[in-house]
Amino acid sequence: MSEPVETDDDETDPQSAIDAQGEQRRAELDDRIFEHNAGDEQEGIPFVGAGPGDPRLLTVAGKELLEDADLVVHAGSLVNSELLEEYCDHAETVSSIGKDLEELIPLMRDAHEDGDNVVRLHSGDPAIYGAALEQMDALEHEGVATYFVPGVTSAFAASATLRTQLTLNEVSNHVAFTRPQGKTLTEEDDHIGEFVEMGDVTTCIYLGTHAVADTMDRLIDDGHDPEIPVAVVYHASWPDEDVIYGTIGTIGEKVKDAGYRASAMVVIGDAVTGAGYERSYLYDGWADRGPDGDDADSESDDSSETADSEQSETAETTQ
């Protein structure tokens, strides 16, 4: 953690802090990487993932931190109000919507230095399009420790709603988290077409509800199969969740008719339907075989007691 930086006017310069922390990160690794794991409660301000919407999908660690918080700075309407009411009704809550870093950093810093338990609550998982690190770097630069507390990202809530996996044997071996071109992403940095071209990728598009029709039109113009399945899950896990099924050729018009412009997860690929996959190696007996290819059951009556733990260890090499 960096020592506080003295300034004449006691105002935060976030960009200078970001640049300084970036240089420090290039020079040496943070010792805390090796001292803590993702489930540890640590010193400083936690940046907590609120999950996709349903308060029950908040992690246990996130719930405990919110229940102990004096100040919760949250992502406004991106966080379900039911979650705030259930876990934060005792605390002061401040929406970050409409506030820049120059306002947010002193707010959290001063409350922390006054002895308050401060929680920065992001929607979904703060590591996915959360712009969390710039806030953390600015706080660290002023001597305030920070750390991540993971959350359930909306792509995972969407796959649960769709009753499918994002990876399926012989259907989708890869997952891409991406966003479409627009005001903050140039055409050159939009790789959605490349992911779809690969064929065995499930493409999960964040921050792209308003651009579904344009995105699909570009895919068709680039020669992609208009029959590739697409699902749009609006407000995944919220009470007003809605699911729209279609294809690259039809989904744009369907989303337009529904009137959604934000807060939906767009999933492209054959994994959307959950059809056409092959059984995995993990549960076809491969993981139960001995080192010489013999059935482990023939070697030991105790094999069934260890099979589950062995399967979990071999999963990464068999799928």
Structure commentary:
Helix content is 33%, strand content 15%. The chain has helices at 14-27, 32-35, 60-67, 81-87, 101-113, 132-141, 154-161, 192-198, 212-221, 251-258, 303-318; strands at 45-49, 71-74, 92-95, 118-122, 146-149, 174-178, 201-205, 229-234, 242-247, 264-268. α9 (212-221) runs antiparallel to α10 (251-258). The longest helix is centred in the C-terminal third of the chain and has 16 residues, at 303-318.
Number of helices: 11
Q: CATH class of the largest domain, please?
A: Alpha Beta
SSE succession: HHEHEHEHEHEHEHEHEEHEH
How many β-strands, per DSSP? 10
Proportion of residues in helical segments: 25-40%
CATH topology of the largest domain: Cobalt-precorrin-4 Transmethylase, domain 1
Amount of beta strand: 15-25%
Largest sheet report = 5 strands, parallel
Supply the helix-strand structural class. Answer: alpha/beta
Rg measurement, Å: 23 Å
Residue runs with pLDDT of under 50 for 5 or more positions: 1-9, 298-319
What is the overall pLDDT average? Answer: 89
The CATH H-level homologous superfamily of the largest domain: Tetrapyrrole methylase, N-terminal domain
The strand order across the widest sheet is 3-2-4-1-5
